[in-house]
Amino acid sequence: MYDFKFADIGEGIHEGKILKWFFKLGDKVKEGETLVVVETDKVNAELPSPVDGIITKIGAQVGETIHVGETVVVINDGGDAPKVEVKEEKKSPISESKSAPGVIGEIEVSETVMASSNENETKTIETASKVLATPVARQLAKDLGVDILKVKGSGENGRVMKEDIQKMASSSPSSQTPVNQSTPAPQVQVQAPKVTVTATGDVEYVPITKLRKAIVRSMTLAKQIIPHTVLMDEVIVDKLVVLRDQVKTQAAAQDIKLTYMAFIMKAAVLALKKYPMFNASFDQENDRMIVKKYINLGMAVDTPDGLIVPNIKNADQKSILELAKEIRQVADDTIARKVQLSQLQNTTFSITNFGAADVAYGTPIINHPEVGILGIGKISQKPVVMNGEIKIAYVLPLSLAVDHRVIDGADAGRFLSTIKALLNDPMMLLLS
Amino acid sequence: MKTYDIIVLGGGPGGYVAAIKAAQLGAKVALIEKEVVGGICLNHGCIPTKTLLKNAKVYKTVKHALDYGVMIDGAISFDWSLMLKRKDLVVKKLTTGVAGLLKKNGVEVFSGFGKVLSAKQVEVNGEVLETKNLILATGASPIVPPIPGLKDAYEKKIAVTSRELLQIKDAPKNLVIIGGGVIGVEFATIFSSLGSKVTIIEKLDGILPMMDDDVRVAYAKILKRDGIEIFADAEVKAVNDHEVTYSYQGNEVKINADTVLVSVGMRPNTVGLEVLNLKMDRSAILTNDQLETSVPNVYAIGDVNGKYMLAHVASAEGLVAAEYIMGHKAAMKYDRVPNAVYGSPEIATVGLTEKEAKAKGLKYKVSTFPLLASGKAMADNEKDGFIKMIVSEPYKEIIGVHILSYNASDLIAEIGVTLELEGTAHEIARTIHPHPTLSEIVMEAAHGAVDKPIHM
After folding, report:
1. Three-state DSSP class for B49?
2. pLDDT score of A49
3. Cβ separation of A139 and B395 shorter than 8 Å?
4. Which of A91, A107, A298, B41 has CB atoms 3.0–4.6 Å from A347's, for a disulfide?
5. Which of residues A212 and B267 earns the better pLDDT score?
6. Residue A100's CB: how many other CB atoms inside 10 A?
């Protein structure tokens, strides 16, 4: 018998809703076959079967919520005693490659979206078993943002010692990411003031999805913590339009849909390289900036369920064509809710395209703990003054929101000017 | 040929504990001891000195009976031979107890000198025993340093080591102690309390050089107040029967002694082990945290590995070696070894001294609390001493505690547990300590480490 438990996905995710079962009681299942789809805060995770066998018990029905540690299924694999799947903590963050059965156990949570909230805290207590730990280890875990429940203790009776926390913190980039530290007491901050909303008249109560709850939390967090300031300007992109038209068909031959987004991303990458303070986080607790040496460009994707911001990893190492290809791929995956959690993590700067919604300007909300977000408006033809004459030109409106605690308006202006210059004369984009 | 899983060579607090633990874990064990089980600790060290210390303390208390409203008519005196008798009785009871424990646990004890033939064979009383594992627990012996005339005086029984001093026929009127370490200080207290004139000559800058500076300075003051002369930075140049010559502040000084105690240190007993060709660390056998030597299946515990020449460390090492041999996970943690000096008052410490904490570059805070502020100490008519607690920032983790107080050695165990659990001053401060007890000073020091003590 194999008792397959819902594994701890990571901080923030302690439960999931069963969306779909691919098997029913008594079905034969092979190792690696997808058993069930579980909706968590941000992704729909497919749980593969860990063994071959016959399903003898189903833990939760479609629509029900399953908590970490609860049985997903019991599979008769021919063994006698019930085996409990014990998972070793994976030290490295998950890669994009497909993993062995029980893939969800390896996924780490996107701290960018799911800073721990009170809701999650309570659930930890409900679902987690007690862990022996020393007082110093507990405090250190809190300070370093390490989930102590996931740490294997080296002390007597498996007691978690401070050294175990230090090792965990230094080996696991996600738990080490100072993001959690830089978030000043998210438990308190995230909680929106309790406002009782009373309903009168003919109303309908529509419960919000888990994704929407996550959006509520991250937006509330960002707006409560970050004093936003927004700069807006437009840039003439005639040359960019010509360039794109020229190479569009060649790209299409390679099965790549070349969008303006790819060029804009390239421009953003170059500007971020020139002004690294925009590719950073503010660690307020320790009075310092955490400047990232990698650029993972986030892009806001409008999905039927709500906004999700996946990122293009190492965008600075990719050509415009590669960016174009990956933008499409990641967007498709996100809309299909197939995106991996890792794709949502460690974003360093984000771009949102409200041009797609036929809008020119907006005041985008920064994806905490980033310090800036670039809003892209719709490219349209407008009358402009050039050399004392009114001409018709293609104009791209840009809106840049920055964290004014650490970036001043003048800095933001220089950053925006760099992007404008690159988009105005795209030869520089190609040469850089 | 008799075959064993483990042969333990030496029946001191390291050896007999290792033997009992191994037997409890199912091993077939033989223990070879050339004298009486219990080792130096039970026979010539910890226990006999503590017995004599108590004798001396009782004498001192009776002399001050009036302080407690107790009237004594007539002269107060002591009989040294009766004191020795009590000591011998205590030792006898304890060593008999150890022999009984060994028997009860099925350890075969051989009385005789065990000659190591190889890592697998030991000869005792003409019989060759075979073993899969060998634990060396042969202990250490007092060093008699090459000072001119000292060897001669030693042979004439004017100069003695701690071992002989515990058997001495008459308590010396005039005792000169070479070496102000733990042993020297303890004997100084015993004989000073009994009315002897005691002089300590120490080569280094003060007594108890390994202790925290605040403690050793305060302790030296107390000893001096009690009439013990201490010459630090002084070196003994010659011993001519009863005359001891030492250099002090550029002068050669001569002093007379009935008895000269040589307490400058101990040397590991490695004679007879040469055949094993073990890797050494100076004069001691090199071991790792599992007490393994450089030769497979040969272990060395206690004084012979020279790490900490303390009975409780030897016992802890014995447990680790036995468990490790029997396939359990075990390792020594040498950073939390408690240490005690028995005198009046006592010193007990565990963890880092302030000097060590500073050298390690740690961010720390020191909290002290004096005995004078303890109700229990006052009731007990004890005023000397304090506790010094060192905590690391920011968590206030306890990293070292130094107690100078009567019964300090009993107080330190609480800190040992705290270190083992990586506890902080917060937990100790929060722990309800019974009132009135001396243990409250630990809690008060913890309050001081967190914020401020209550009763100060």
Report:
1. helix
2. 84
3. yes
4. A298
5. B267
6. 11
Is A72 at the interface with chain B, CB within 8 A? no
Nearest chain A alpha carbon to B422? A134
Distance CA(B257)–CA(B153), nearest Å, equals 11
The pTM score is 0.59
> What is each CA distance from B377 to A157, B3, B190, B428, B436, in whole angstroms?
38, 56, 22, 20, 9
Active site residue: A14, A228, A368, A404, which one? A404
Cβ contacts of B335 on chain A, cutoff 8 Å: none
d(CA B187, CA B185): 6
> What does the radius of gyration of chain B's CA atoms come to, in whole angstroms?
23
Spatial separation of the C-alpha atoms in residues A32 and A35, rounded to whole Å:
9
Shortest CA gap A149–chain B (Å): 18
Across the interface, do B422 and A137 touch by the CB < 8 Å criterion? yes
Q: What is the pLDDT, as a whole number, of residue A189?
A: 40
Q: Is A132 in CB contact (< 8 Å) with chain B?
A: no
In the predicted model, residues of chain B with pLDDT beneath 50 are none
- Take residue B252 and report the two structure tokens written for it: 């050669």
Residue type, A173: P
Tell me the domains of chain A and their CATH numbers: 2-84 (2.40.50.100), 119-212 (4.10.320.10), 227-431 (3.30.559.10)
The residue with tokens 């350890």 is B107
Could you tell me if B175 and B200 are in contact, meaning their C-beta atoms sit under 8 angstroms apart? no
A404 is catalytic: yes
Structure tokens at B243: 């005359």
Say if residue B283 is exposed, middle or buried (CB neighbours under 10 Å; 0-12, 13-18, 19+): middle
Q: Which of B319, B362, B395, B450 to mutate to test the interface with A (most CBs of A within 10 A)?
A: B395
Helical segments of B226-310, H only: none
Nearest chain B residue to A155, by CA: B421
